[in-house]
Write a structure and sequence with these properties.
CATH class: Mainly Alpha
Strand order of the largest sheet: 1-2
Number of strands: 4
Distance between the termini: 48 Å
Order of helices and strands: HHHEEHHHHEEHHHHHH
Largest sheet: 2 strands, antiparallel
Number of domains: 1
Strand content: under 5%
CATH superfamily: MetI-like
CATH architecture: Orthogonal Bundle
């Protein structure tokens, strides 16, 4: 009996033609197909360029009370009562505020403070939440019970009320900080610390739940049999496999921190002048809702756009990093 050579199956694909995607590439493919997330990413990129790169070009002009041309934050903090409450014009594109400060320049340097508060508070939230959740889930027993009861107790503290009280009584007790050539008032430090230390609890519970599930996987049992230390087990095997909720929580935490700062600054208890933030630019603007709408339109618009963009990016990351997601690649 002679062997007959069969023609190759029509659906066969050469191995060289198969493109294998890494988890990162797969997540990026999913993220790119989330239109609102991509729009939010481009808007955030534009905001960062405006806030951190446009100051040298847009924030400059003559400060009449000093009789000299200024640039940067010095121009943003220049008071000129003679030009107060001027409507947007070619000279002052966003108009001037109640003490004659250029609103365009203050949105630039105020944006730096608002974004600094958002990013810094989110970093504190992520570090605390991830640490507490990972330790509680991995060690279990009384360690888990103590940490989770402490987490539940922290959840009962009204963070916004605590932020207002702390900003009121601690704002002037901490010395000013100079960083990257800028001097930040003590209220900035208080707001970052309070927001960060009162917003980690939900992330801790999410990380704990994920690690409790991962502990039952075969690769963790194999690592234990090989004698992997607890520290290496947590840092190298468990935390990398729970990065998805951590990254999503970090992005949403930035938006929440910016909003919280805007709340307390609007009440006059947040970032103190002359340091600008989008929040304290809205202080007293309610008195000019009709007569000088540019006082609240521009800083309020920046807060709105930033928070919406961060939330859209967070939604896109949630879908892209979900291994059980159904979004097509």
């Amino acid at each position: 009996m002679t062997a007959v050579a069969l023609p190759p199956f029509a659906g066969t694909v050469d191995a060289a033609e198969i493109k294998m995607l890494s988890p990162g590439q797969l997540a990026w493919q999913r993220f790119r197909r989330h239109k609102m997330a991509m729009a939010g990413l481009f808007v955030l990129a534009g905001l960062f360029v405006y806030v951190f790169a446009a100051g040298a070009i847009l924030s400059r002009g003559m400060c009449a009370p000093l009789g000299q041309a200024l640039s940067g934050e010095a121009y943003a903090n220049c008071n000129d009562i003679a030009i107060k409450l001027q409507a947007p014009s070619a000279v002052h594109i966003f108009g001037t505020d109640t003490i004659g400060q250029d609103i365009l320049a203050r949105t630039i340097y105020g944006g730096q403070i608002s974004l600094l508060i958002g990013v810094s508070a989110a970093l504190i939230e992520v570090m605390l939440g991830t640490l507490v959740g990972a330790i509680a889930a991995y060690y279990g027993g009384w360690v888990d019970s103590v940490l989770m009861r402490f987490t539940e107790a922290m959840l009962n503290i009204p963070s916004l009320f605590l932020l207002i009280v702390a900003a009121k009584f601690l704002g002037g007790t901490i010395p000013e900080i100079t960083l990257l050539g800028r001097t930040f008032s003590s209220s900035v430090v208080v707001i970052i610390v309070i927001i960060g230390f009162t917003s980690w609890m939900y992330l801790a519970r999410i990380v704990r739940a994920n690690i409790l599930s991962l502990k039952e996987q075969d690769f963790i049992s194999a690592s234990r049999c090989l004698g992997v230390s607890n520290r290496r087990m947590i840092l190298k095997h468990l935390l990398p496999n729970t990065l998805a909720p951590v990254i999503v929580t970090a992005t949403l935490g930035i938006a929440n921190a910016i909003l919280s700062e805007a709340y307390v600054s609007f009440l006059g208890l947040g970032v103190k002048p002359p340091t600008a933030s989008w929040g304290n630019m809205l202080e007293n603007s309610y008195r000019y809702l009709e007569s000088a709408p540019w006082l609240w339109v521009f800083p309020g618009l920046f807060v709105l756009i930033t928070v919406l963009s961060v939330n859209f990016v967070g939604d896109g990351l949630r879908d892209a990093l979900d291994p059980r997601g159904t979004r097509a690649v």
